[in-house]
Amino acid sequence: MTECNIWDRSNARRLSLTRRDFSAAAAVGFGSFCAGCAVNPATGDQQFMLMSADEERRIGAAEHPKILKEFGGAYEDPNLSGYIAAIGGRLAAASELPDMRFTITVLNSPIVNAMALPGGYVYVTRGLLALAQNEAEVAGVIGHEIGHVVARHTAARLSRSQLTQLGLIGLAVLGSTTGLPAGTGRLANTLASLHLQGFSREQEFEADTLGVRYMSRVGYDPKAMATFLSQLRAHSGLRAKIAGRPAGSVDQFDIMATHPRTIERIRRAADAAGPKPPHARNLYRKAYQSAIDGMVFGDDPNVGVIRGREFSHRALRFRFTVPGGVRLINRPTAVIAQNERLQSTIVFDMDTRRSGGALSRYITRDWVKRRLNNLEGFTVNGLQAATGWFAMDTKKGRIVARLIAIRAERTQIFRFLFISPPNLTQRLSRPFRRTTYSFRRLTSQEAESITPLRLRVQKYGRQSLKDLVRRMQVESHAEGWFELLNGFTAGKRRSLGETVRLVV
């Protein structure tokens, strides 16, 4: 066990302790506080830690299935999965914990993101892989996430949270015996229930530094971490343009929301990582292009496909259409359609619990458990359905919610939730009604005809760029997607004979 002297100025700096940490430590006693000191495997610095490595592994193993469920499961392509896992394996072997077992998973999601769980679980989405121009850029992402694991950042966050809880509990006890204000205990309970959101700026910088270090050791050009960040920014800009949002905005599920890095920070990380070995210059573009050739692009039909205003699901065999002016978002547990201008939202999901009897009873007994206005039954394209509505006050004001339940089978109840402000409810009633009656089951033949778009790599040849853009099967902004997927910048063009990526 490493002895920790909190009064040593250098140690206090290394521990990065806040005033809150010292206050909490005082409440629970310095003895227990010092017992939680450990050495950061990546830096050799001392850090406060209340969680063992075994506990980290248990947490990671417990959360792993939840991540898979949230992001559409693992992408079922053994060749691509093995290729990405091999990249992660080489980086992990170059880390300060070379014997640690890492699980590298490609998630079957078009969302552009990457993440890590304690215990060695690292994830990249196929949406992210579609943007990367070479193997080195992917290595930069995976190296960054491995850095979070090796430096035990999640464990440090949880330890600080536990310390705060312990300190607040101690404060509550003191309040009961020393005459502190009566509300102190309640405040303690409230604050203790809060979870830390995201890694700190210092932890993100440390993960960047470690990622660059591991890349260099393996032989990748560490500059690729910065070039990929440019790709991420270009992607966020294109998505914002498509959605009609401000150019600098990012989607809540986008990697730029969870990893708010700058090129300057990455440059600082490269400097902090030290000089790069002479051999650290490889990008491996050709091998990477070959690995992603044929990868599903955008939605997977087995988890639902968005085509314009239409949503179809091959496995569950249904289809519906939303009103114009909405933004459709396909999540593993629900489909969300938002109209920001009219402040309205449609949420579509499914309940697989066995349910018999009247659907009106299901809505008030199993779904919302409250009385509804105008509760009634009807049919939608031959399927039993029921509806009702209620109004309620929220933090953003009063809303009207209309619920639609449609029974397809005894274990399949499809649900629409239409939300609108009271002053627009009448105006939106007709578009909401059209959406409801657009829901229908698909025949087996119709379901099988729903095929995914794929990323294809081909030689540039003698085709003009306009001809190549014309082949892009995206819904809109074909030129923007073509330039993004091929890493084009202003005025940059590929040489004849080089490969380009198309969505077909």
Task: Please specify the SSE layout and strand pairing.
Layout: H1 9-15, H2 19-28, H3 30-34, E1 37-39, E2 46-48, H4 53-70, H5 78-93, E3 103-107, E4 114-117, E5 121-125, H6 126-131, H7 135-150, H8 153-178, H9 184-192, H10 201-218, H11 224-243, H12 255-258, H13 263-272, H14 285-292, E6 296-297, E7 305-307, E8 310-313, E9 318-321, E10 327-331, E11 334-339, E12 344-351, H15 359-367, E13 373-380, E14 383-394, E15 397-409, E16 412-420, H16 425-438, E17 440-441, H17 444-448, E18 453-459, H18 465-470, H19 478-485, E19 499-503
Parallel strand pairs: 3-5
Antiparallel strand pairs: 1-2, 4-5, 6-18, 7-8, 8-9, 9-17, 10-11, 11-12, 12-16, 13-14, 14-15, 15-16, 18-19
Helix pairs in contact: 2-8, 5-7, 7-10, 7-11, 8-9, 10-13
Give a written overview of the molecule.
- Among the domains are: 301-445, 3-Layer(aba) Sandwich (Protein Transport Mog1p, Chain A); 452-503.
- It starts with 8 loop residues before the first helix and ends with a strand.
- α2 crosses α8, α7 crosses α10 and α7 packs across α11 (224-243).
- The protein has 19 helices and 19 strands.
- It has 504 residues and is α+β, with helices and mostly antiparallel strands.
- The radius of gyration is 26 Å and the shape is globular.
- A 7-stranded antiparallel sheet has the order 10-11-12-16-15-14-13, with helices on both faces. It has a 4-stranded antiparallel sheet with strand order 7-8-9-17.
- The protein has helices at residues 9-15, 19-28, 30-34, 53-70, 78-93, 126-131, 135-150, 153-178, 184-192, 201-218, 224-243, 255-258, 263-272, 285-292, 359-367, 425-438, 444-448, 465-470, 478-485; strands spanning 37-39, 46-48, 103-107, 114-117, 121-125, 296-297, 305-307, 310-313, 318-321, 327-331, 334-339, 344-351, 373-380, 383-394, 397-409, 412-420, 440-441, 453-459, 499-503.
